[in-house]
Fold these 4 entries.
Entry 1:
Amino acid sequence: MYVLVIDDERNVRDFVAEVLAGEGWEVTTADSAEEAFRLLPLKPWALVCCDVMLGGADGFAVLRRFKEEQPDAQIILMTGQGSAVGALDAAAFGAYDYLLKPFGVEELASLSRAVRELFESERRKRHRVVSSPKGTGLFATQLELVGRSRAFIEVMKQVGRVAATSLPVLLTGETGTGKEVIASAIHMRSPRADKPFVAVNCGAIPEELIESELFGHVRGAFTGAERDRKGLWEEADGGTLFLDEITETTPAFQVKLLRALQEGELRRVGSNHTISVDVRIVAASNRDVEEEVKAGRFRQDLFYRLSADTIYLPPLRERREDIYPLASAFAERVWSLNPTVSFSTGALRLLEAYDYPGNIRELENAVVRAVALCNGVVRPEDLPARIRDFKPGAARGEAERAAEAGATAVASSGGAREGAAQQQEGWLTLAEVEARYVARVLAHTRGNKQAAARLLGVDRKTIERMIKRHELDARGAKGEGADKGGAGGDGAARAVSDAV
């Protein structure tokens, strides 16, 4: 079986090729999308492993082209700069997986075995390419799908896979984890994107009105019903209906909801006539729905009908890597006239240590308040008291938090203002913070200076000057004091580093 490995970094290309050859694949390599397009018609490719960031056309262009001309090929996109939108695009356009660098031998080998099993068992499901008429950039802006943690990227991969179907989806997770945003993402990436998306908070509608609100009513159905009225279910015809807080509905209403789902039709309150409606349902709850079923508060048959696919949204404390990107996005949106607003080291330390029982919604409110009070740099005193006074139980060490917060501050504001703040608060000097952060980025990119420069927002000459100034090697090491806990310090990183 043939595999094509595409990466403009030779060490990564050779590493992936060696692992796959060891798994029994017949491997061909390419260093650009253009070379891959030339090789495309020459063999029936079973697997294509492609870097997202290539010199010319990117990995998504490769993905679309291969899916159009060889739809049986399974595509694995590899990236050192994972993002939620990237994971969503990869799944929506039919990628088999979205693999985050650095990765180890076993992770890659396991994926290749899974692809081989799909072919050998003849049970592989084809992934249909779903094109977006409005463009992925607009979706990213509208939906604010901000995050690069592995947990959130896994959510985006699920969203991308389920979006192309018409299956009902059940979203679970704590309050404030962004269930409506994810429901919107499912709709916007689906074939129903040009039809209505209607969101209903079932817990906010009085019990005696919810049937009329959802299904509509006819004139005279009850006191005050002076004319026929469409329900929200009909308003969503052809599109998606998002039923938030679905577990707040009564068992009596759940029976009617189940019938509408099963039959694809509804009956307005006071009417004897049924109306056919084509609606895709996305439901959500901040409760454990299975526990609600066991307690008799939610119908089991309705649960099974709604949960053809279930997506769990992790709380913010389980995706702390996303706190700073989210905070920055909220700050820039609020202070649109001055997008250079930044966070002091102390403020970042507090934001990243807090547990956020209200999740993303609580973080947004805290940032909005802080930006309104600050003078261009958010400091600890600008944050709510509950965040300032929070004492984490099993917190990370002070030094580790300081390094992480300081590194993030340098990345956000370019470092000039943050250096003074770090010294004032007794943290690292600006030079030390820059050295550590550059070392982490180099470890993360496994010595790829161009990728490191892109990540830092500087040109290649600047990154080379930084390496020389701080006496770092290409991988970010500096004698015995090399950063061992950075982005490339886990087992998978070491496996890749050792191999390449």
Entry 2:
Amino acid sequence: MERQKDFEFYRKEYRFFSYDGYTMDEYDDQLIITYGFTIDHLACFHPQWTIPLHGRTIDIHDPLLNRMVFALGMVEAISYWKITCAPLWHVKCGGLDAQAVQWFKKLAYYGLGEFFYINGIRTSYDDFVTIIPQNSLMPHYPDTHDYHGVMVPLGGGKDSYVSAHILKQHHDIYAYIINDVKSALHAKDVLKLKDDHTLHVHRTLDPTMLQLNQNGYLNGHTPFSALVAFSSVLVGYIHHIPYIALSNESSANESTIKDEKINHQYSKSIEFESDFQWFNHTYLSDKIHYFSFLRPLNELQITALFTHFNDYLYDFRSCNVGSKQGVWCGHCAKCCFVAIMLAAFNDDVTITSIFDHDMLNDPTLWPLYRQLSGLDENKPFECVGTRAEVVAAITLALTRRDLNHLPYVLNQFKSMVLPIEQADALLHQHGELHHVPACFYHELSTAMKEAHLWTND
């Protein structure tokens, strides 16, 4: 879709976007945060976040709490700014020093990389927006809380199952669930996580934004995992939980568009994780540690570990199309990706029964498999693994099947296998680029060795 003219028109018509402020209210053992954003001469917006307190007493005048709420609002604002991409963004409710201004500008630019690309919008880092804060004051606020436990954000996919399965054996863990997605609630029950250790957070979008989207204003992907980062630190502060263990893997670092820095998973990447760790420890809390527990692994290894556990094959769900119903749609890129990864370690009957659809024998899905494998240059805009991992999965899948009786998809791929040594190397590699604390790394390493994916060397 080519929307460059709309982009230029809106920027002239609606030059100013403002982050006006936020309010915090306690009601029915919940903290309700309401944000205020305005696009001058167009609309005002008031999205909300609702955070359970579970009996916790909070001081809504606590300056560090307010800093965390304010920072979450900066990320929430991106969804509303993108409606017209106003060239000037006024922050009227808090201070940002020069480094913080650049931090949020970088997040907005790369976090909206897919949005710009899909809409055919050409802009530059220097020109796309100027963030103008109320002031440049960001004093240090000490964190005096005592902390305990580990928070694990649950989405219902295999990755968060793997993290929770390992971590619950060693730690007092809290499930973090946004908007009670059906697959996440099911995961909490299957993993036998405690109700009083489940943090149900709700985020509501302003209906005016949804109406403007329907009316044809600019719309597209935003960096949702950045919202997870800021909101989880806020919830960790309220509930005194020091570790936030994400389930993002090394595969999230690969760009979706070949040879360009346009990544659907930008806010799941190691670059964002490193940036966020710096922001959190500089401006928020140096007692709360945000990291991805699975960052040393790739998607092939996570699928192998998940299959090794053999407890959740028929319970997990990763499909965004079917997320509200807690089902696999059987026709999207995510379903195809999960199916081809599972094929490396499971037979066709198992895969068909998981999806209730013969994913490897459906010719209509072939274009998606082409994109996933690198036969086409660009990957689907989905949370999927690298091209090399998909080819390695195909290689491993073919080694466990009769080459004379292959399902349609694998038969199409028969000529593009790797040498088995390369596929095995990917299956057993150690990712060096991560922020996993030593004790957590030891627990991950133990699980990998028990599954014979890492050696004891």
Entry 3:
Amino acid sequence: MPDANGKIKTHVFSLRGRRDWLLCGGMRGEWFICVALTAVICGCARLPEQAGVPDLQYALPAPDNSPEWIAAQQAFQTAYREHGWNHPATAAALNRMALVHKARGKTAAAEGLYRQSYAIIRDTLGEEHRLAAATLNNLAELYRETRRFEEAEDAFRRALGIMERDRGASHPDTGRIARNYARLHRDRGQWAHAAVLYNRAVRIARENNAPVPDQVSLLRELSTAQRSRGDFAAAELSLNAAQELIEKAALSGLKIDILNSRALNLLAAGDQQAALRYAERALELRLAQDGWDHPATATEIRTLAWVHRLQGNYAEAEQLLRKSLAIDEILAGRNSIRVAENLLDLAALLQERGALGEKLSLLERALDIMQDNPAADEMQLHDTMRRLAGIYFANRDFASAESLLLQLAALKESAGDEESAEMAAVLNNLGLVYAARRRYAEAESLYRRAVEIWEQDPAGNRMDIANAWFNLSELFDLRRMPAEARLYRLRAERLLENNR
């Protein structure tokens, strides 16, 4: 779970004690094509030209023999037989097939189908048609879920612009794409951008009298973005608006979700007692409605556990987290992301209780789950790798610490984050490992590179830079170079004095 501000903390250890919704469009002539879309979307940058007509029955293996796949394949065969390849009906059928592949985890096949569908729509209806936006939206969601964020960003931007021009700035389809685009920013931790798009989606939903559950869900997502950027008052207003909708529509079943969101908002704002009351009430109502054996119950338990942990009630928090873990292991599966998140929460709690032995095994299991699951949160994955490397370092298992940090550095490089503050922290920590292994030249190079990155960051933390200077000082002490050691120690101390 994140900290009170909704952010994952970066840890630097140191030697110093360290709906499927349906978009339907009028076609030229008498044809009407409905393109099935998912509620969440991702993007593509440049789409290839369609060259020839592929024999899709043989080019793509069926994900299964489910009724959904059989129906999708039959729809494609009918469209292809009656209209040929270059027709919007065929494009719609390709979209339908892609959805089945995506639902089965066959992302490469789904991507190919979405691209083929887009090429047909572009060639027959033009790049500015709403069905082009719909397909870009589907493709963007695919890439968002596989964390190809730059491609998703480009596709969402294009899809939103096309839909605005074709349907209008206040059309429900425009609002849906805005919401999906907001979710991309949410996944990237870009809370200010997410809040702007969520606000727009909320306004459009309100103007079009969207179903109350949809509006409530949107307001909850907006409140999360507002809370995560520290705007607790705005988050409370969003939850109040959701509560009013629930009461007017007499939808008491949605009340529990609002109670949970209020608890998280109050907790982030520092009102732990009020957060405890809301979390306890949410769990009470959830148990009365769904009982213990329900995924939502595990969610309410984790929220209550988080409140108890921040209040220092570690025994109660541990008991609740173990209950949540047991429920998710049964209902979501032992290798699910929900289980990994429970393991991370429990490991953080045990660290505060001093039970470091079990913490190591919990983090190792969580890391194994996340590394095998493409839907794992990237920030959580990287944070887990850092935390484990820190434990290995403290236990003098330098080989394991080095291996994890090298993997993490490679992930940062492949994501284009080689100049980020997070990368600097990885390099600094790897330098500590090399220093402990007496690979002094490599350690020095890594410390200097970390300082270089931190100094170029406008929001750079002077404490991080000073810490790297202290590490260099201790490194020169180990190399029996006292003059150099004193130089860097003074530089670090001077930096800290100027920062007071």
Entry 4:
Amino acid sequence: MIDKITTKQRASLRGLANALDSVMQIGKEGLTENSFDAIEALLQARELIKIKVLKNCPLSPKEVCAEICKTLNAIPVQVIGSMVVLYKYSTKKDFKHIELI
């Protein structure tokens, strides 16, 4: 399991995230138990995900990122504008993992 990444690895993940579309939105409900479950499932399926924080969310994108990372042991890759990019090594078997240089 990976709990820390280098600056070079973070830059590589940011590059990969550029091509991604957001797979989830956090809105006026903020972060709920259901959203944590959905984010965990997405991280297990993809390892690298992009989340959009809507304007009506009670938390800022940085707060959303910090809360998700603390709760799910994910690694923050980038918070830019209203987008949050997260990485977490998948524990699924027969999964093609993202290779960190």
